[in-house]
Fold each of these.
Amino acid sequence: MNIIIAGPRGKMGSLITKIASNRTDMKIVAGIGPEGRDYIGQDIGIVSGMGRALNAIVVDDIKTVINESDVIIDYTTTEFSMEILEAALRSKKAVVCGTTGFSEEEFNRIKDASKQIPIVYAANSSRVVNLMYKLLKIAAEAIGNVSDIEIIEMHDRYKKDAPSGTSKEMGQVIAEALNKELKDIAVFGREGKGERVPGSIGYHSIRSGDISSSHTVMFGLMGERLEITHHAYNWECFAQGACEAAAFLYGKEPGLYTIKDVLKIE
Ligand SMILES: NC(=O)C1=CN([C@@H]2O[C@H](COP(=O)(O)OP(=O)(O)OC[C@H]3O[C@@H](n4cnc5c(N)ncnc54)[C@H](OP(=O)(O)O)[C@@H]3O)[C@@H](O)[C@H]2O)C=CC1
Ligand SMILES: O=C(O)C1=N[C@H](C(=O)O)C[C@H](O)C1
């Protein structure tokens, strides 16, 4: 299968390039970067920092390369992801989207597009984080209604969105386990909020240095607390999942698939 990688200079795009180039089931046919970058026209292997050419060029106009591809892997920005989505719709190509921070309206555009093209949307493409969702469901069902739930996430200083896409998904898992709507129980910041309401979910975002990704969900009771934590030491676990998702999409019918479909997590 032929793939295009968006943002090959980025943290995720460069790792996805490295991992995809070592797989035997996929071939990178192009990269896409923003207009005006000095690396446009160069080989993606050089742009991504791999130090060897892969015989695929980074372009700034997806229209010029999209027809050579089967799947586009996109971990970039919300604005650029919307452009990729429109291009993929026009050319009927599959998309793996791992970008986070979409508005509700933008996410509805992804859902609409998935009626015509196959899409994997994954706010977190690590297998282990998706296993953590299962642990959260068990904990929330058992003690969620009687605990003070806090989601504490840490990322690098450059991350654009807060709270992280993963922490929103974690909140959603917990809200579903409690038969509640996340919007009714999520609390962003505690200033002026008064006493803690059991069963509500407090969100806390830390941005510092080069922390790659860390999520802790704390279920606080009187005299004890349970913490479930995932730490990523680098972004490779997410990039592995991105390539798995691309392989999964090859030949799939239109639809909105999740990383659980890809990784076969019940
Ligand atoms: N789903 C998951 O598991 C994960 C999701 N993410 C999400 O992925 C996204 C990217 O994260 P990260 O790699 O850390 O970010 P980076 O800032 O490192 O990379 C973003 C890339 O997008 C490129 N880009 C920006 N605008 C355009 C455009 N108009 N056209 C083409 N390329 C563009 C940038 O180009 P340039 O380098 O030239 O500026 C850059 O290479 C974020 O939303 C993040 O939250 C991150 C990790 C895991
Ligand atoms: O920007 C990141 O780094 C990450 N973003 C995703 C998110 O917003 O949850 C996934 C992971 O935490 C890394």
Amino acid sequence: MVATILVGMLCAHLLCFALMFLLISKRLQGKRMGMDFFALGSLLLGFAYVLQLAEGGPAWSVMSVVNHTLTLAAPIAYWLGSMRFFGYAAPLWRPLIAFSVVYVLAQVLVQWSLGQAARYAMLAGISSLLFLGMTLTIIYGVRTFAKDLYAEMVIFALLISGICVLNAMKFMKILDGGLEALDMDSSFQMAFYIYMSSLATVIPPSIVWLVLRRLTDDLRDMAGRDPMTQLLNRRGLSEALKVFFNTRNPAPAHLLLMDVDHFKHINDTYGHQAGDTVLCHVADVVRNTARHGDLTGRIGGEEFVVICLDTDSAGVMRLAERVRAGIEEQAIDVAGTQHPLRCTVTIGVSRPFASTQALEGAMRDADAALYRGKEAGRNRIELPRTPHFHPDPHAGRATPCQRTPSEPAVLSDGSATHQQP
Ligand SMILES: Nc1nc2c(ncn2[C@@H]2O[C@H](COP(=O)(O)OP(=O)(O)OP(=O)(O)O)[C@@H](O)[C@H]2O)c(=O)[nH]1
């Protein structure tokens, strides 16, 4: 009687959570994070337990064959759903249908050749192996694709390994004592149902928690990035900087502020779309040239920023020169223009700064240097006005480049795009 109530509650939990997962997956639309797979898994397992209640005990019937197949199809759906959650494009129906057909045939074969107990032992054995596979996948995941969810994954691994152990024990018991081991009111089966009921209560809300975490992480990321170039925006820069300065003994940072030269003319001549292509190209060069760990951002129309972390003034100058030269050298293919475009940037360098609060000051510093660079002819790197800034004289071009103040940005075929007054 108690076992029947437990299994009944288990069914109710699973079917309710199936509905909840389905509603969540509808809400998530394009990015379902595997919630539709979890809905199906819960539905299949819920139905499997309904059939078990209807069956009452071990039997050789269509209901029993379907029950066993659903019992194993459910963890497969969960497994595939987890892959979806972590961004792998796992299919659902084909593997499930293929597995179900194979498993129905296997049941018929085992029932006829080895008998009823062997078929139930096969169910317990394969369940145990499936949950072992899941546990191992999670253990692999915490070292690779699920590093950011370490604590959650460890808890999942522990809970799921419990099902693996219980099914392995059931397998041994059936081999040892036959079908009597499956008596619903036996102490082992009671423990089994209590454990499964507890999991059915704990795991689905935990999965919802994971989805919530992913969604809030995505939102935070979106709020901190420029949608066009995917570089950090002001907010993203300042949050990343906060994290850096909260580490132990952080070195002072330097800020490079760069502005595309004569950008208005590119817009006016080739259109806004072409201007956007140029901005994306500049963003790519900045992103690919900065060192791993530096912060790269776009903080306004054609203004970009690199915050150099853990480097000295000489390193900052080398980086600034690499960015300046990289942008100057690379031609930009723009749809609708006969020749690729070229553009240049002027870069202002800040004094070193050592806190997030000092970011605004560093920005002003670099802006003043940038302004001087524009005045002095563009396509150059301008240093802060401070006696403490000592760039390595061999590190790159800290002096104005050869372009004259009136020289414009040009098309790669050599024609001018602008005449500076
Ligand atoms: N295509 C495009 N243009 C933008 C965007 N944001 C700002 N702009 C344009 O960028 C141009 C900036 O022009 P200015 O500030 O005059 O600077 P400039 O022409 O680059 O001149 P200097 O900086 O002095 O070399 C303006 O025409 C803005 O409309 C954007 O997201 N896309």
Amino acid sequence: MSNSQVLKSPTSKSQAVLKSKKITVDFSGFKAINELDFEVNRNTVHFVIGPNGAGKTTLLDVICGNARVSTGKITFNDKHDLTKMSENEIVDQGISRKFQAPSVFHHLTVYENLEIAMKQKKNLFSIIKANNNQEDERKLEDMLELIGLTEEKDNLAGSLAHGQKQWLEIAMVLMQEPDLVLLDEPIAGMSKSERKKTGELITKVAKERAVLIVEHDMDFVKDYADVVTVMHEGQLLFEGSMEDVQKDSRVREVYLGRKVD
Ligand SMILES: Nc1ncnc2c1ncn2[C@@H]1O[C@H](COP(=O)(O)OP(=O)(O)OP(=O)(O)O)[C@@H](O)[C@H]1O
């Protein structure tokens, strides 16, 4: 499909935080991503959907430096070419990823988990050294409030419910102050009420940064998406609002028709 055929969302006029140009990821001759042009705008909840094997996870992998493109370029904040940077350099530039399984420090409290994430942003030495200053304390308290875990702050992270662990990990990602947050199926294994809270959290997060989410749950995408990109066989099949995505006959044929009807 040519780019001119790709429908643009109403938010496409706002500034792009990430732009990929004709990226290809080649695994021994198999193109998991094939000449993909893709953009993510600021202050946007942007979902990537598509059938199994479409290349969604690989897309997140190349953005965070976990996989390499064979051709193409990914520009971040209009200046950095991510394809030439290490994973750590990419985090330093402002891209943080939360993987599907929560990986919080179970033997530390909720508060201590956030402290570690905050201090990693500053430098590793300060993890063991300095006390928090007032501004740090405020940041930590604000973050606890954002994720609804103020009352659990002195509890061990290992004692939290599954959804709470996921919110804590999202908060740890946010303590890095990224411009772009990458999430892999953030509501997997969550109850209905946890899903709702997660959607509301993501909406709040996107007020200050871009959030790019790989997701299979179409109800969740419908409720919280600003923009939806549909991938198929490593390429962009369609992009737009969820309403437009659902109407598109090609999307229904390769994906949605089988998922929801
Ligand atoms: N390291 C690798 N080596 C070889 N092939 C790979 C590798 N990683 C992914 N692939 C293949 O690339 C294709 C895209 O995989 P990817 O995981 O990105 O798809 P996906 O859209 O995330 O799928 P799912 O929804 O099932 O997670 C798949 O066919 C997969 O088998």
